[in-house]
Write a structure and sequence with these properties.
7 helices; 0% strand; globular
């Protein structure tokens, strides 16, 4: 999950983290997705949990796009009115997106969107009971996954809230496709806008 924001200039680097190359970022994204998919598969293998189903149709696609649009817009609003979130988002996006090329946005949307939703909403949420406690715990785990260090707590808090929205959409619809589409949409739109803005500023 990535936040949406509108920059006047490229985000400043975080001096505590060494810059990554494009290949390193892509490998890290793929490796993380693979690990999450393996964890989800092992969980299903050793637990009798009924995985949340995925049913393709106009309704889940429309609901996913609507939810993703709402998350993206609220993230943009938070970026404008909450300075700590803005700094946290800038560090995160600069670290992940700066080395990438524009076509890489596709993988940044698909790989985390599918793997994270499969584990946190598809398996963890029903395994923990599919209730409000399960929703809270799975959302917190999702948020912690997005915190690189303690200074990133505003981004972690936002990711936890988004996890709650995605989890609620999964429970309400009983269709994993809704949060998957919302997650992919949010990641792709946010990173695409950031890259276009940054590339445009770099060209001038």
């Amino acid at each position: 999950m990535l936040p949406l924001h509108f920059l006047n200039q490229p985000a400043p680097p975080n001096s505590s983290m060494e810059p990554l190359t494009r290949i390193q970022v892509l490998v890290a994204i793929a490796a993380t997705a693979l690990v999450l998919l393996i964890v989800a598969r092992l969980w299903l293998l050793f637990d009798s949990v009924a995985q949340l189903p995925s049913h393709l149709g106009i309704y889940p696609i429309g609901m996913g796009l609507l939810l993703g649009s709402g998350i993206t817009l609220v993230s943009g609003l938070l970026y404008r009115i909450w300075p700590r979130y803005r700094r946290s988002a800038e560090v995160y996006l600069d670290y992940i997106l700066t080395p990438l090329l524009l076509p890489d946005v596709l993988w940044l949307g698909l790989l985390p969107g599918i793997s994270e939703e499969l584990l946190f909403r598809g398996v963890m949420l029903p395994a923990l009971g599919g209730n409000l406690i399960a929703l809270g715990l799975s959302s917190l785990c999702f948020g912690l996954l997005h915190m690189s260090d303690l200074r990133q707590w505003p981004y972690m808090l936002w990711a936890t809230c988004v996890g709650g929205l995605l989890g609620y959409s999964a429970l309400a619809s009983q269709n994993l496709l809704v949060p998957v589409i919302a997650h992919i949409f949010t990641n792709m739109v946010s990173s695409l806008l950031w890259k276009l803005k940054a590339d445009n500023l770099a060209a001038h």
